[in-house]
C-alpha cells in the first residue's frame, strides 16, 4: 500500500498545478526514442493512439528520432501530418538512447511521462495499467517483463545478474530494471541529469531523490522488425555506470563525509602517537629515529591529504551541479501535429 500523494488522486483533472507553479493542460506525454525503426513506427503510433484515445486523457506522443540512418525521420514527418497528438523531435545525429530519452523528457509537457521502446517489444495497451498504479501515489512505476521474449543466455541471464546487483547497490529492488516501459511523474524527471547509459538507472537515481517506486507486470513481445542496437559492449558500459551510481549514492553527495572521516581518523592516530612520543621524551628518554615517529608523521600527512580530498570533492560536486547546463543532445527540428517548427 502506498502513501497518497497530493497529486496522486486523478490524472484527468486537467488543470492541476505543476511543481513549477504553471498550469499545464497536458495530462500525459509518451516518449519514444527511435533509432532505425522505420518498419515499426506506423504500427507503434496506431497502437499508442488505440490505447490512449479511449482513456480521455489529454496526451502527446513525443517521438524522438535519434539520428536514424533509415527513413525513420521521413515516416515521422508523414505521420505527424495526420496525427495532431504527435510531436516529432529530430536530433542532429545519433546520440544514444539515454540522450534521445532526455530530449523527449525535456520537451514533454505532460504531468506524467511514460517512456517505452519504439520496436513494439513493449505493448502500448499496458500504459493504462502503469497510470493506474501511479495514481495510487507513486512517483515512478516500472514495467516488469515477467515473460520476457529475448534470448535467454545473451540477454536474460546478464539482466538477472544486473537486476540483483543494481538492487543491492541502489537500495531499489526491482525485478526488471531493463524494461523501458515506465511511467514517471514529471517532477521526478525534471531535475534529473542523464548521460552515458544512465537511463537504465532512473529508478535508482530517482530513489536517491526520494521517489516512491513500484513495478507492475507488463507484456513483452519479440522484436518483429529491424534488430537490437546493442551488443556485448553494453554489459561493460552498464557495469561501469553501475559503479558510478553506487559511488554517487555513497560518496558523491557529500564527499567530505567519506574522506573527511578518514582524514580525521588518520590525524587522530598521528596525534596520539605524537603525544605518546612526547610523553616518553618528557620522561627523559631519547626518542631518536623510532619507527613510531615515522608512523606519526605519515599518519599526519595522510590525514591532512584525505581531508583536502574531501574538500576538493565538495568543490567538484558544486562544479558538477553548476555545469549541468551542458546539453547532451542537439535538436535539428521539431514537428508538431501538421508542420515543422
Ligand atoms: N535507440 C535509440 N538510440 C540508439 C539505440 C537505440 O534511440 O542509439 C532506441 C531504439 O530505437 C529503441 C530503444 O532505444 O526504441 C531500445 O533499443 P533496442 O530495442 O535496440 O534495445 P533492446 O530492446 O535490444 O534492449
Ligand atoms: Mg528492443
TrEMBL record:
Q: Which residues form the Glycosyltransferase 2-like domain?
A: 29-191
Sorted keywords for this record are: Cell membrane, Glycosyltransferase, Lipopolysaccharide biosynthesis, Membrane, Transferase, Transmembrane, Transmembrane helix
Parts forming coiled coils: none
Q: Where are the transmembrane segments?
A: 257-280, 292-316
Q: Which InterPro entries match?
A: Glyco_trans_2-like, Glycosyltransferase_2, Nucleotide-diphossugar_trans
Any GO molecular function: dolichyl-phosphate beta-D-mannosyltransferase activity
Q: From the Swiss-Prot or TrEMBL record, give the protein name.
A: Glycosyl transferase, family 2
User: Species name for this entry?
Assistant: Prochlorococcus marinus (strain MIT 9303)
* Native organism taxonomy: Bacteria, Bacillati, Cyanobacteriota, Cyanophyceae, Synechococcales
Amino acid at each position: 500500500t502506498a502513501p497518497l500523494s497530493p497529486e496522486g488522486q486523478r490524472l484527468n483533472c486537467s488543470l492541476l498545478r505543476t511543481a513549477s507553479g504553471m498550469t499545464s493542460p497536458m495530462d500525459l506525454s509518451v516518449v519514444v526514442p527511435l533509432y532505425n525503426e522505420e518498419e515499426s513506427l506506423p504500427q507503434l503510433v496506431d497502437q499508442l493512439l488505440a490505447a490512449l484515445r479511449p482513456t480521455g486523457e489529454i496526451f502527446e506522443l513525443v517521438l524522438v528520432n535519434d539520428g536514424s540512418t533509415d527513413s525513420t525521420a521521413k515516416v515521422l514527418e508523414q505521420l505527424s501530418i495526420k496525427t495532431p497528438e504527435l510531436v516529432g523531435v529530430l536530433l542532429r545525429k545519433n546520440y544514444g538512447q539515454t540522450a534521445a530519452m532526455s530530449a523527449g523528457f525535456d520537451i514533454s509537457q505532460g504531468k506524467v511521462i511514460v517512456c517505452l521502446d519504439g520496436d513494439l517489444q513493449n505493448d502500448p495497451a499496458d500504459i493504462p495499467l502503469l497510470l493506474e498504479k501511479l495514481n495510487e501515489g507513486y512517483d515512478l512505476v516500472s514495467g516488469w517483463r515477467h515473460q520476457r521474449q529475448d534470448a535467454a543466455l545473451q540477454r536474460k541471464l546478464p539482466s538477472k545478474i544486473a537486476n540483483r546487483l543494481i538492487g543491492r547497490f541502489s537500495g531499489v529492488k526491482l525485478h526488471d530494471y531493463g524494461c523501458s516501459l515506465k511511467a514517471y511523474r514529471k517532477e521526478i524527471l525534471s531535475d534529473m541529469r542523464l548521460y552515458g547509459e544512465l537511463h537504465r538507472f532512473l529508478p535508482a537515481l530517482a530513489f536517491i531523490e526520494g521517489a516512491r517506486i513500484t513495478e507492475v507486470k507488463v507484456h513483452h513481445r519479440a522484436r518483429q522488425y529491424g534488430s537490437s542496437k546493442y551488443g556485448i559492449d553494453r554489459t561493460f558500459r552498464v557495469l561501469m555506470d553501475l559503479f558510478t551510481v553506487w559511488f554517487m549514492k555513497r560518496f558523491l553527495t557529500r564527499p567530505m563525509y567519506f574522506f573527511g572521516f578518514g582524514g580525521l581518523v588518520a590525524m587522530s592516530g598521528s596525534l596520539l602517537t605524537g603525544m605518546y612520543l612526547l610523553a616518553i621524551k618528557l620522561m627523559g628518554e631519547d626518542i631518536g629515529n623510532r619507527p613510531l615517529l615515522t608512523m606519526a608523521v605519515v599518519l599526519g600527512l595522510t590525514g591532512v591529504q584525505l581531508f583536502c580530498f574531501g574538500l576538493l570533492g565538495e568543490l567538484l560536486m558544486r562544479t558538477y551541479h553548476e555545469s549541468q547546463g551542458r546539453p547532451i543532445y542537439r535538436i535539428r527540428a521539431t514537428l508538431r501535429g501538421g508542420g515543422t517548427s
